[in-house]
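Thread: "does anyone have the structure for this chain?"

Original post by V.I.:
We have the sequence but no experimental structure in hand. Need at least a predicted one for the grant figures.
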Amino acid sequence: MAASCGDGQNTRPSKGVSRILLKLESNLAERNFYEAHQIYKTLSYRLSNQKKYDEAIDLLYSGSCRLLQSQQIESGADLAMSLLDVIGKLDNDKRAGHIHKLTTIHELIPPDGQERQLFICKAIKQTKTSSHTAGSPELHGAVANTLWKEKRHSEARYHFLYSADGENCGRFLIELHHSSGSNPHEVDLFITQMVLQLLCLKNASTASVTFYAYVDNHPDVVKGPPYLLPLLNFLCFLLSAVNEGKLAVFTILCEKYNFSLSRDPLYKAYLDKIGQNFFGLPPPKNSGGLFSGLLNSLFSGLDESEDLPYSVSQDAPSTSGVSVQSPRILASSDLD
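Reply from O.Q.:
Generated one for you, tokens below.
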């Protein structure tokens, strides 16, 4: 695998710990992985109880990587979950310094088993903060790029939505459009859906970068502005209106592009939420009904369950640009 990791052990161990580490190395050299796993667990538990969290983290990270690279998936994933438990004891600002460890382990765990899904779900929860209620954007971005390389498009799209990596998100959507076998006339639907959903999540900066990365690099998009496709012009104007806080422009755009926006019944619901997020508009009075139910089904994503809102086997893209996402793509708590 492409991922690699050092032993991460930067502190000088005591004599007692040194003897245990020598025994550990001996077991690894002899491929006695069960004993090695037990030593990792016992020693890390002792270090954690002594509040030597940095040492415990380094030990568990090293052990998880080495066991995973030796194809000891269950044992390596178990150490990875223990690593998350120790990281969870740190303050939020210190947790951020270990994101790279989590992304490396994610890449090392095989994609088709439940171990990876359980790990990344717990990792996301451990990186939640008041400003990032869906978990670390850096973690989501790294995971998204790994999944993109693995051609697991549904999962990658979900994590790009919660990342801050607009440049790669736009380029990913280009590949998604081409690989899905969609009609060339749907080239605008792929980017429209993503930009509107990012704005629903109040992530205007990533929405803008994603949009321009897509339209500037997609071979089927005639360069603009203005663009030949109405929805692309709408997005261009919308992002400007959001950036400048111009309610009048937003209102006119929704009226003038009503016909193009009717191509997907959820666009109106997205725009209602965008109006609330950026222009202080109240929720529509008739917020119930069929479209509200459809929207709520999209907005029931990250919760307290042990599952991410997609299946680990869901790697085949849809043939339609408007239905690529999981039916649980957004979390209602993230939209408030």
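V.I.: this helps a lot. Residues 301-306, 312-336 have pLDDT under 50 and may be disordered.
O.Q.: and The two ends are 40 Å apart (CA to CA).
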